[in-house]
Amino acid sequence: MAAGGNGAGGDTRAAFARIYKTLKEELLTDPAFEFTEESRQWIDRMVDYNVLGGKCNRGLSVVDSYKLLKGADALGEEETFLACTLGWCIEWLQAFFLVLDDIMDDSHTRRGQPCWFRVPQVGLIAANDGIILRNHISRILRRHFKGKPYYADLLDLFNEVEFKTASGQLLDLITTHEGEKDLTKYNITVHGRIVQYKTAYYSFYLPVACALLLSGENLDNYGDVENILVEMGTYFQVQDDYLDCYGDPEFIGKIGTDIEDYKCSWLVVQALERADESQKRILFENYGKKDPACVAKVKNLYKELDLEAVFQEYENESYKKLIADIEAQPSIAVQKVLKSFLHKIYKRQK
Amino acid sequence: MATAEVVVANGSGGADTKTAFKEIYSKLKQEMLEDPAFEFTDESLQWIDRMLDYNVLGGKCNRGLSVVDSYKILKGVDVLSKEETFLACTLGWCIEWLQAYFLVLDDIMDNSQTRRGQPCWFRVPQVGLIAVNDGIILRNHISRILQRHFKGKPYYVDIIDLFNEVEFKTASGQMLDLITTHEGEKDLTKYNLTVHRRIVQYKTAYYSFYLPVACALLLAGENLENFVDVKNILVEMGTYFQVQDDYLDCFGDPEFIGKIGTDIEDYKCSWLVVQALERAAENQKSILFENYGKSDPACVAKVKDLYKELKLEEVFHEYERESYNKLIADIEAQPSKAVQTVLKSFLHKIYKRDK
C-alpha cells in the first residue's frame, strides 16, 4: 500500500496536479518582480488558461520514464517532486509555443475554448504572455535545480530544444508561405524536417532527456536514443496529419483543416508523389481553399490514390524499424522507456 | 612600435572598440547561420540573415559597447587582450540581441509603424506575424551564443541565470505596462508615481543599465550577490533615464530625438502625465481626462498647454538635479574606485542629454 501512496498511475496524476499548484503559487510570489494585484490576477488566469487543459502526456512521461530508468515502482517524495516539476516545465514550454503559434496561425479555438489571444481584453498582449510562460520555466528550474550537478545541463537542454522548435516553426511558416505560391515545394524532405524540429524534439526527446538527467546520465552518451525518439516523433506527427483528414472528429476533438490551411501535410506530400498530371492539377486548383467543394475534391483524390493504405503500410514499417532500433539499445531500462512511448502512440486514433 | 601596433590592433580608444564590436557581430551572425543544432534550408538561412541585420543592427549599440568599457575600467586597463575583447563584445551583442527581441515583440503589441527610421519588422511585406517567431529566434540566439563561447567558463551558469532573470523582469515590466495602459484607458487616475516607477524599473532599467555592468562584473570574476548596491544604483539611474525619455518625447526636438513623440496620443503612463495629475486642480484634471489618449492634434495641444501651465519643464529640471545629486552621493559611497568610475561613466553619458 505504501507503494501505491508514492506513485501508481492514478496517484502520479494526483501528485502531478498538486505540484502544479505549488509551482504556480511560487511563480505568483516570485521575489524577482513586484506584482500588483492586477498583474498577479492576470498571470494566475493566463497560466491556468494555457498550461492546464491538455492531457499532460509529455509532462507525465518524465515521471514514468524516470521510474523505468530507476527500475522502481515508487519514487521518493523528493524524486516525485523533481520529476513532476520537470514534467511541468515541458507543459509550460508547450503552452508558450501554442499561445504564439495560435497568434501566427490566426487560429480560433484550442482545446475546445477560444485561443488565448481571442479572449476579450487579451489580444496581442498574448505575445508577451507567451514570453512570460517561457520565463517561468527558467524561474522554476533555478528555484528547484540550482545546486544540482546537472543544472547547467538542464538549462542547455531546454534552450536547445526551444531553439530547434522555434527553427522548425520558422521553417513551417516560410514553407507554407512558399508553398502557397508553388505547391511542388512540398516534399517528403521538407515535411520530415519541419515535423522533426517543430514537434519531435520537445514532445518525445525532451521528456526522456529530462529523465536521463535526473538519473545522473550524460546526454552526450545517448545520441542513438535521441535519434530513435526523433524518429518516433516524426511518426507521431504523420499520424496527426493522417487523423486530421481521416480521424473521427468525435475522437480527435476537432475538425481538421490542414487542406484549407495549405499545410505541408504528409498526405499532400504523398499525393504529389503519386499523382499523375491530371491528378496534380486537381491538387493545384483545390488545395488551400476554404470552399467545401474544393476540400471534397482533394479528399476524393486522396481516396483515389489509396492514401489510407499507404499510411497503414508506412505505420507498419515505422513500427518495425523503431522496434528493431529500440532492441539494439544496450540498456534494458532504456528499451523499456522507448517501448513505453511507442506503445502509447502505435495505432492511436486520437 | 610593436606596443603601439598591439594597442591599435587590440582595441584602444572608442573607434577601435566599435570596429572590433562590428567585426564580432559578423562572426556571431555567421555562427548562428551555421548552427549544427538545426538543418537550415536556403530559404530559412536567407530569412534569418535578413531578419538579424534588420533588427539587431541599426541602433547605437550603447548597451553592448558599455560592457567593453565597463570591463576595461574594472580591470584598470586601457587595452584588453584579443580574447578578453572578444568575450566582452560577445556579451555586449547578447544584450543587443535581447533588446532586438524585446523591440520586435513590443512593436507588434503596440501596433507601431516605424522603428529607427524604417518600418517595424512586422510591417515588412511577407513578414507580418511571423515576426513573433522571429522574436523567439532572436532570444534563442542568445542561449546559442552563450553556450558556444562561455560553456566551460566558471561563471557560465551565472551568465545564463543573469540573462534569464533580467529577461523575466523585463517581460514582467512589459506586462505591467500593457495592463496598466489598458486599465488607465478606463480610469486615468490609475496612473501614479508608484506604478510609473515600477514599470520603468522592470521594463527598461534592468536590461539597459544593470545587465551591461553585471556582465562586466562576471567577466571580472566577481560574484553578483556582493554588488546589490551597484544594482540598486543602476536601476535608479535607469529610472532617471526613462523619465528623461518621457520628457523628451514631449519637449525634445524631433530633429534630435529622431522621432515625433506620441505618448499623449498613445495613452502612455508617462512621468509627465503622472506629475500633471499630482499637481492639477480639479478643472485642470478635467482637461486631462477629456484630452489624454486622443489622436486629435487639438486634444494633444490642450494637454501640452496644460503641461506648460503646470511648469512641468521646471519640475523635470529640478527632478534631474536632485536625481543627479543623489546618484553621485550613492556612487561615491561605493568602496571600490573602479566601480565608482564605471557608474560615473554611465551617469555622465546620460546626464542632461537632449536625445
Automatic annotation (TrEMBL), chain B:
Q: Which GO terms describe its biological process?
A: farnesyl diphosphate biosynthetic process
Keyword Metal-binding present in the record's keywords: the answer is yes
This protein's cofactor list reads: Mg(2+)
Q: Which GO terms describe its molecular function?
A: (2E,6E)-farnesyl diphosphate synthase activity; dimethylallyltranstransferase activity; metal ion binding
Alphabetically list the UniProt keywords. Answer: Isoprene biosynthesis, Magnesium, Metal-binding, Transferase
The family this protein is said to belong to? Belongs to the FPP/GGPP synthase family.
Protein's recorded name? Farnesyl diphosphate synthase3
Natural source organism: Zea mays (Maize)
Q: Which gene encodes it?
A: LOC100273420
